[in-house]
Specification:
Blueprint (H helix, E strand, L loop, with lengths): L1 H16 L2 E3 L8 E3 L33 E3 L8 E3 L3 E2 L2 E3 L7 E6 L20 H9 L5 E7 L4 E2 L3 E7 L12 E6 L7 E2 L4 E7 L5 E7 L6 E6 L2 E9 L6 E2 L2 E11 L2 E12 L11 E2 L1
Parallel strand pairs: 1-2, 7-8, 8-11, 9-12, 10-13, 14-19
Antiparallel strand pairs: 3-4, 5-6, 6-19, 12-17, 13-16, 14-15, 16-20, 18-19
């Protein structure tokens, strides 16, 4: 009888007030469970949790290993696979979101043999736009407008970071390089690709890294450039398709400081073209 009465009371509250309160007369949400002295307002679910759906469609319980993630105050929660966003898989600790910087026209040829400040960088405004599209950080994909075949001994790409005062604090992100959708770029055998960060507006880049064989960390300052990734082909003359890239987690921590928090992590690009045989060394 108690169960029947409870169900009736809940149904009545739903129809009349459009909100249901358990142990509260002033619910603040569609379902509000207030804590009690007995069980502190906990919820016991013997089955799964379904997200999405409507009056005609059943919601999803997600896939094995996925976690429930908030999408912000105005969007519904969703099931996500940790370390995967838009086909990109990473062991770097960043949110599961991507933003793309399209390297179009001459920007697609920004790779050069210059390892100095005279090299034309990807502008800070492009990185700023990408970070604006990532509410909590994530993966920034540098996408060339056509499939590239890198054959210089070392090809450098300089990326200018925006001023850290532009509302981008505590947005951890990583950077990867990829070809057009459906294609991977290629690196010839014995050649290298280097991605380097450049601080803008007098900002500085700092890295904290461990010292091998010792429980000690070093705090390093990089006032001009920081090598965020280096990819070397050891596959011989044929080269290989670029499907793996080493990276590091980047975050702005105050007005003048960029922090490199995880210097050794990797990201896998979506594999659209079968890679040739050979070794990849980062």
């Amino acid at each position: 009888m108690k169960v029947l009465f409870t169900k009736f009371a809940l149904l009545t509250g739903l129809l009349v007030f459009a909100q249901v309160g358990i142990d509260t007369e002033t619910p603040k949400s569609d379902l509000h469970i207030s804590k009690t002295a007995t069980d502190s307002g906990s919820i016991q679910i013997d089955g799964g949790i379904r997200l999405g759906g409507d009056q005609d469609t059943q919601g999803s319980k997600g896939e094995a290993g996925q976690v429930l993630m908030s999408a912000g105050p105005t969007s519904p929660a969703k099931w996500v696979t940790l370390g995967k966003a838009g086909g990109y898989i990473t062991d770097c600790r960043v949110p599961n979101e991507i933003a793309v910087i399209n390297l179009t026209g001459t920007q697609s040829d920004l790779f050069s043999t210059l390892n100095n400040a005279d090299a034309s960088p990807i502008p800070a405004s492009s990185v700023q736009d990408a970070l604006d599209a990532l509410p909590n950080g994530g993966i920034i994909v540098l996408r060339t407008n056509e499939r590239k075949n890198y054959s210089n001994s070392t090809s450098y790409l300089h990326i200018k970071l925006p001023s850290t005062s532009q509302g981008i604090y505590n947005k951890p992100f990583i950077i990867t390089l990829d070809g057009p959708e459906g294609e991977n770029n290629k690196l010839q055998g014995g050649q290298n690709i280097v991605l380097q960060l450049m601080a803008d507006d007098g900002s500085k880049i700092y890295e904290v890294s461990g010292v091998s064989g010792d429980r000690k960390y070093q705090h390093k300052e990089f006032p001009t450039r920081y090598q965020i990734a280096k990819l070397e082909s050891t596959s011989g003359g044929g080269g290989f398709n670029i499907v793996l890239f080493n990276s590091a987690v980047i975050s702005a921590v105050n007005d003048k400081t960029w922090a490199i928090m995880s210097p050794f992590c990797t990201v896998q690009n979506p594999i659209e073209i079968p890679a040739t045989s050979g070794n990849i060394r980062n």
